[in-house]
């Protein structure tokens, strides 16, 4: 539960399930405390891919490959996913091969900022789900890599609703301060169109103004 939407509303939404073909990964993530997108976020992510049909997709933060598989299942584009943890990268590759999408999903072992700094690929869709305190840095590095009509979707930007609180526990403070700065930053940029959504743990849609 994200703590943002009323518990009964969240339970009602999740009663319709996540992605049926990926229920084994949802179960694994829950049992092993691996953070993956929530069920409503997975459905929204899939909807965005199916609607916009991006041909090139970049994911920042692979984990076990769940979100990459959601995107692969809802579109036909090529996906590059960046993961800095080697054991997670290996598990993601295993899951991707098991589901039969190894020809469309590439998992790169690298730091997200490092990868963006040296990449010359242009992407139609970028999904951010890596270190939350680095989202502003990732955005600045991602925009030059975004196609003219491309979109960026960021997950967990409301951080269990804590970005709306005046006081937060010390262990969350860095993430909250940096997320607040990031959200304010994108809204103040006159070259961007931004939509802050209370889906899941908070999602932020970004694209350039025409």
From TrEMBL:
MF terms in GO: magnesium ion binding; O-methyltransferase activity; S-adenosylmethionine-dependent methyltransferase activity; tRNA (uridine) methyltransferase activity
Q: Which CDD domains does this UniProt record tie to the protein?
A: AdoMet_MTases
- The region annotated as signal peptide is none
Identify the keywords attached in UniProt to this record, alphabetized.
Answer: Magnesium, Metal-binding, Methyltransferase, S-adenosyl-L-methionine, Transferase, tRNA processing
One Pfam family hit: Methyltransf_3
Positions contributing to Mg(2+) binding: 129, 155-156
- Give residues annotated as binding S-adenosyl-L-methionine: 37, 67, 83, 129
Single Gene Ontology BP term? Answer: tRNA methylation
Q: What is its EC number?
A: 2.1.1.-
Task: Kindly indicate whether the keyword Transferase belongs to this entry.
Answer: yes
Q: What class of enzyme is it?
A: transferase
Task performed by this protein: Catalyzes the methylation of 5-hydroxyuridine (ho5U) to form 5-methoxyuridine (mo5U) at position 34 in tRNAs.
Subunit field text: Homodimer.
Q: Which family does it belong to?
A: Belongs to the class I-like SAM-binding methyltransferase superfamily. Cation-dependent O-methyltransferase family.
Its protein name is: tRNA 5-hydroxyuridine methyltransferase
The organism encoding this protein is Proteiniclasticum ruminis
Q: State the encoding gene.
A: trmR
């Amino acid at each position: 539960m994200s703590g943002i939407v009323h518990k009964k509303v969240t339970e009602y939404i999740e009663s319709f399930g996540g992605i049926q073909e990926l229920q084994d990964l949802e179960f694994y993530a829950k049992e092993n405390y691996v953070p993956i997108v929530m069920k409503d976020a997975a459905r929204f992510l899939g909807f965005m891919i199916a609607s916009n049909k991006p041909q090139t997709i970049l994911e920042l933060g692979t984990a076990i490959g769940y979100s990459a598989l959601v995107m692969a299942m809802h579109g036909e584009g090529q996906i590059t996913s960046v993961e800095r943890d080697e054991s997670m990268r290996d598990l993601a590759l295993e899951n991707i091969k098991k589901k039969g999408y190894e020809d469309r999903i590439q998992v790169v072992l690298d730091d997200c900022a490092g990868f963006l700094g040296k990449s010359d690929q242009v992407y139609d869709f970028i999904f951010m789900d890596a270190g939350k305190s680095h989202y502003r840095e990732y955005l600045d590095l991602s925009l030059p890599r975004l196609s003219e009509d491309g979109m960026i979707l960021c997950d967990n930007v409301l951080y269990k609703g804590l970005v709306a609180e005046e006081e937060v526990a010390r262990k969350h403070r860095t993430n909250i301060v940096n997320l607040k700065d990031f959200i304010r930053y994108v809204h103040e940029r006159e070259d961007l169109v931004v939509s802050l959504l209370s889906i899941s743990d908070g999602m932020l849609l970004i694209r350039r103004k025409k």
